[in-house]
Amino acid sequence: MTGVRRWLSKHRMWNLPTLIALVLFLIFVLFLFMVMNHNDENSSTIYVTQDAELRTGPNAAYPELYPVHKGDNFHKIGKSGKWIQVESHNKKEKGWITGWHTNLDIKKDVTASKDSLKGKTIVLDPGHGGSDQGASSRTQKKSLEKVYTLKTAKELKSLLNREGAHVKMTREDDSYVSLSDRNLKGDAYISIHNDSLDSTKANGGTVYWYRKGQEGLAETLNQSIQKKALLSNRGAKQENFQVLRQTNQPAVLLELGYISNPTDEDMITDKLHRHVVEEAVVDGLKIYFSN
Ligand SMILES: [Zn+2]
């Protein structure tokens, strides 16, 4: 300090304005430092706010890798639903942590409350029908998408009724209904489909959403299906489907497996597996409406 003072005195700068400028400069540096260390959802460093564990995937069903402790910090490298993929600064440790165990503003998953579906109106839209058979399998079974979307919707309807929900169906039998006629109103809209590709290798379920207000329902249903069903998980994705685009309500389009994949086809055509998926959808809806 005396050195600085001597230099300032020598150059006739040791006066009040200089001191004020010096103090302001120090405050500015401190402020810059704080801003650079500030973390929000866009920044790449996240802090662990509660002792937790890293898992191999974005879901409590994935195995634990190792514990992490309050105050640890990581690079954020990905996000899926309410889970954050992180990597240690030396890149040796990598895994998934729940967002609510970090400094990110992510609320804990709510557990489904018992009566959350009571009085809710759920629209079920079994894809295709009538002259529009949808996708078909290439195995001996020659399964048709329109048959299994309707079966799934009917089975799901009775499970939802049991929870006290009203169900509206866009079709009740094997008839053709145009996409614009499928726009029924309710508290949630679920369009049911099966995927198909030329390659028989593609497999797994996908939950599609399109409008911003539909993403929460999609993530919730995707997590719940992932927890219960044997179907491999392709995630919740945004796609411009007409049935999603033409409605303002929370709406999703479920692709419940590839009918073109023999393993998925076995699951789609198996009543027991469908039941597991349908229960997962009910669970997800209960969680969604518990919020
Ligand atoms: Zn379809």
Per-chain topology:
Layout: H1 2-10, H2 16-37, E1 45-47, E2 52-55, E3 64-68, E4 73-80, E5 83-87, E6 94-98, E7 121-126, H3 145-162, E8 166-169, E9 188-195, E10 205-209, H4 215-228, E11 233-238, H5 242-245, E12 251-258, H6 262-268, H7 271-290
The structure holds zinc ion.
Description:
- By secondary structure, the chain is α/β, with parallel strands linked by helices.
- It folds into 3 domains: 3-37, no CATH class; 40-101, SH3 Domains (SH3 type barrels), CATH 2.30.30; 121-290, Aminopeptidase (3-Layer(aba) Sandwich), CATH 3.40.630.40.
- Helices cover 32% and strands 23% of the residues.
- The strands form 3 sheets. It has a 6-stranded mixed β-sheet with strand order 8-7-9-12-10-11. A 4-stranded antiparallel β-sheet has the order 1-4-5-6, with no helix packed on it. Strands 2-3 form a two-stranded antiparallel sheet.
- Helix 3 packs across helix 7 (271-290) and helix 4 crosses helix 7 (271-290).
- The longest helix has 22 residues, at 16-37.
- It is elongated.
- The termini are far apart.
- The relative contact order is 0.12.
- The mean pLDDT is 90.
- The chain binds zinc ion.
- Residues 127-128, 134, 145, 193 line the site of zinc ion.
